[in-house]
Structures are given as structure tokens and as C-alpha cells.
Write a structure and sequence with these properties.
mainly alpha; Rossmann fold; 3 domains; five-stranded parallel β-sheet; two-stranded antiparallel sheet; 25 helices
Amino acid sequence: MKRISTGEGFIVPPRPARVSAAETPKGPLASSLVVFAIIVAGLFFAREVLIPIAIAVLLSFVLGPLVNFLRRLKLGRAFAVLVSVLLAAGIIAAVTTVIGVQVAELAQDVPRYQRTVERKIEGLRAGTLGQTMDYIANINRAIHQSGEESKESAEKAKQQAARDSNRKAEPEPPKPLLVQVEERRPGPLELATTVLAPVAQPLATAGIVFVVLLFILMQREDLRDRLIRLAGSSDLHRTTVAMDDAARRLSRYFLGQLALNSAFGVVIGVGLWIIGVPSPVLWGIFALVMRFVPYIGAFLSAVLPIALAAAVDPGWSMVLSTFLLFALVEPIVGQIIEPLVYGHSTGVSPFSVLVSALFWTWLWGPVGLLLSTPLTVCLVVLGRHVDRLEFLDVLFSNRPALTPIENFYQRMLADDPEEAQEHADLILRECSLSAYYDDVVLKGLELASRDAARGVLTPSQKDEIRASITALVEDLEDREDAVPDPASKPTRLFDGAGAAGDGESTCKNEPIADPDPDELPAAWQADGAVLLVSGRGFLDGAATAIADQLLRKRGFGTRQVPFAEVARVRIAEWQPGPAQAVCVISLALSGEPTHLRRLVSRLRQKIDTVPIVAGLWRLDEPMLADDAVRAKIGADDHVTSLRDLIETILALARNEGGPDRSERSDAATPPRQALPEPA
């Protein structure tokens, strides 16, 4: 899943441009189920028409780049489309002819292969298995015949001889008459009907496919405009760009998949030819086609060649070689080459691929099994660009259903710090610790703060969230706050998000310039040099602990001050110590400016010569955009991210505490940077 950076760290990516849809009221569940049942019934009963149309649509994505290439050569649309369709038809006809010839040759040798298999079975019986059975039979015979005497054997022999003599004396029965029935030879019309009947339906389907394909390629822009109209778009420019982009990416994906599967079939065919398996071209084409079946297609394509190798070779070397060929080529293609060509996956979750394969096979049979993955990919891409079909993206795509922020907050609500740690480890492979805290943890805490303000969090849930945050911060204590080395990511045709890959790093955060040990004044390294004062929110203490950890990693001496110590009734007893700067941290602002102003005012009366920085993390709070509101708080500076906080404290330390207190105006300085829009 791609993430977008503001230059400071990792943030939640926006949704891709979608076709904006008109507002439609959500019907009840029963109505949705009825609509779904009608759609499924239509797909089933109209499969004779819909299957050719689906194949034509998929072929249009494959032939689209070729049509565009021919048009760039100054050829007319009609001529470019006709050449592309005729080329595709010629290739399909040639492949079909080769398959027919190979099958015919294979059918002629079936009796010979049958005799080889029979000899192998007899060999197995006469081998170790046969010897074992004979040994058991001899033991049984010896047990049953141990009490028999030779006289009984002789008597039985005489009786048998008498029966044989009587049988010879009987006259032989008459031989049966041989009757031969000759069928009437079929006429030319009957012969033609018998030959063409099996291929009539495939030829009709192929004709429909190419006719529909011609119209799709000829009227591609018109069909796109009609789809935009059906989607109810009000922004034609954005919608057109989104549709063209989706079609281009699907074309690149299907071309990449076709090329990869074709290469797989060529390698298998050449390997079987070297091994000596009959009809290697047939099995190469079969492997190419079966590889469109998700997960098991390549392994199913190995069953028939292995069985044929067992029928051809009297020994077992050909069978073993054929098995090793498929066992080596498929993992190399699937695990190494596929990620390089179009990403680690098709953008569809593995479970969705399995369910879609079962669903389309049930609806359309073997053709549906071959088309299941391409059709599901098309549905996912539509779901990412059309608002009304967004549920398809949620159901079938392999992207997380929740954003990293929502995922983090959900783990906090579930009181599962272990999963939160695993989630953090994944993000920290590409982002620095401060970027993770800024763009995931603090924003997750903001969600919790909003829920607490709405009164939906129980006291036990608040305690669990605080405990989970504390455990997470402790687990990340030993991790350095540095940008990880960018991993070498090759350029890809189609990545897991359903988009063209560009090989860029997922996170574009910039490292914070850490001070040298000799550069940081000794007064700022003493314990309590930077006072981190928590607001009265139930998660302000957790945010304070995070800021404390990041500052300590840069050599600052810090001290966390709970809100209770600086409350109005206890401020007189509070001792600031050797403070060089004070940072007031609050996750809430709605209804809190008065509270924060009083807190800053109490701190100012206690330590008048120390600069006070207000850390206000609510980036989407409208009050933060009001200079008058910030000025009323009374702080010397305001920061809206941990990065800003660290850089502000570093600047104060380099200036030995900043300008003289008398030179500061009573009004707070403006923010260090414009507040970004919420992710």
C-alpha cells in the first residue's frame, strides 16, 4: 500500500481518484440480498452471452496497447483495430490447430502407452510386492497341508484322471455360426453434421468474441463516456483521468500476466522436449492456459505430462525428470519473477481469489475458473475508482481494510500491545521512529481523545489504552530514531495496490538533525532541563512519554510533570528545578483554550525566564488556525508535531535558552509552519 509523505514522515494515503456518485439512500439488507440474487441468476442463465462478452473485454485490455501503437504510426482506427483483431485471431487459430494435431498424434499411440503401463504394473506385481505375496501364500499353504497324507493326494490324482478321460469321450459341441452386421455408410450431409457438431459451439463462441471485440476497440471512448454517465459523475476531468488510468494499468497487468504465462509454457515445452515426453508443444500450451487458474493451475498442468511420462518410459527416470521440471520452474516463476514483473500480488487478497474461483466456476464452469482472477482484478480496480463500487475494493483487495491509524487505535481498544508492536515493526522498516509517532501513534491517540470527549469510552477502556501505549513506548525504547536504509525495490508493472509501480520508497521521511554531544550545552543535558508538562486529558501523559523518549535519545535531560503537580492547588509546592525550557503537551483543544491559558499562566508565574512551548497535536482543530486563540494560550511557540517540538528545543539549546525574556512579546509567536490538511 503506498503512502504519501509531506517531507516529514509517513501519513495515511488518500483514496485514489474515484468517479463521484450521486447520493443514494442505503436500502435495507433484504433489498440488497434480492438485488444480489437477481444479478447472480442473470449471470447464470445468460452465461452463453456473457462469457463471450467477458472474454472480449479481457482481450480488449490485451490488444489496446497494440491498437494505440498502430495508431501512433498514423494508421486509421478501423485499420489498426482490424489488424490487431486479425492478428489475435490468427494466433488463436494457429494454437488451436497445433493442439488438434498434437492430440491426434497422441491418440494414435494410446495402445502402445497402454501396453507399457500394463507391463509396469506386472513388473510391480512380480517384483518385491509379488515376492511378498508369494511368501505369505506359501506359509498359508504349508499350514493347511501339514496334516495331509500322500494317499489322499494319490486318490485325488486318480479321480482327476478319471474325469479327464470321461471328458475326452464326450462328443464336441457344434461350433457357433459367425454373423457379421454391416452398418449403412453415412451420407455426406450426415458425415458433415457428425464432424462439425462438436466444434459448432466453440466456433460460434469465438465468432461472438471477435465481433464484440471489434466493437469494443472501435468504440472504446464512447463506452468509457457511457460508463462515466452511468456512474453519475459531476467531475468529468477527474473521472476521465481515473478511467483512462485504470484501463492503462489493467492493460499492463494483463499483458504482463500473458507474457509471463507464455514464457512459463515455452520453458515447460522445451524442457519436456529435452526429456523426451511426447507432444511437448501440447503440454506447453496446456501449462500456459492452466497457469491462469489461481494457486493450483501450474500444479494441475503437471499431472498429465507426468502420467504420460510414466506410460512412455519403461523405467522411472522420465517421470522423475518431468516432476523435477515442474517443481523447479513454478517456484522460480511464482516467487521470483512474478514479483519483479507485476508486484507481489494481483492486488486481490488470497481468500478473495479462492472464493472468486469457486464462484465463477460454479456459474460458468471451466471457463469461469480461467477467468476468475482477471474478472476479480477488474472488479477491484472499478471499486477503487467508482464510489458506488467501493465495497468491491473493501471485500476483494489485499489492502488493509483499516488505515494504519485506525489499525493502531483498534489494537489499543483491544488491549493487544503485542499486535501493536508487530504493526509498528512493519512501519518502522520504512519510517523513522519520530515519523511513526507523529503520523500513526499521535493521530491514533487523537481518535481516542475524540471518543473520550463523546463519552463512548468506559473507564476500563481508558485504563487499557493507557497501559497499551505505555507497553508500546517501552518496547520501542531501544530503537534508534533514524530513517531506515531504503530497500532496493525494482520497477514493477503492477503492484499490490493495483497501480503501476515506480519503485519509489514507501516512506519519504527526512531525518532530524541530531546535535553533536559537544554541541549540546551541559545545562541542557542535566536531569530536568526540559520539563514536559502533561495536560489534563487522559492521554496527555502518553503523549508526554513519547516526547520524553525522543528528546532523551538526543541527549536532553528531561523530566515528565503530571498535570496534578502543576494544578492550581499544588503549584505553590512544585519545584521546577534546573529547567531550561518547558513544553506543555495536550491532545485536546476544543473547550480547552481557557484551561491551557491558565496552565501556561501558572507556569509563567513560577518560572518567568524559561521559554514555554505548547505542543498541540490536533491538526484538524479549526482553533489552531486562529492566531488570536493561540495568542491567548500565552506560550512562546506552538508546535503541531514531534518533529517541530524536537527542532524547537534544539534551536533553543543552540541559542542557550533563546532570546532574553524581556525581548519576547506577550503574544505568542506564530506557528513554525503552515498547518497541513488532515490526512
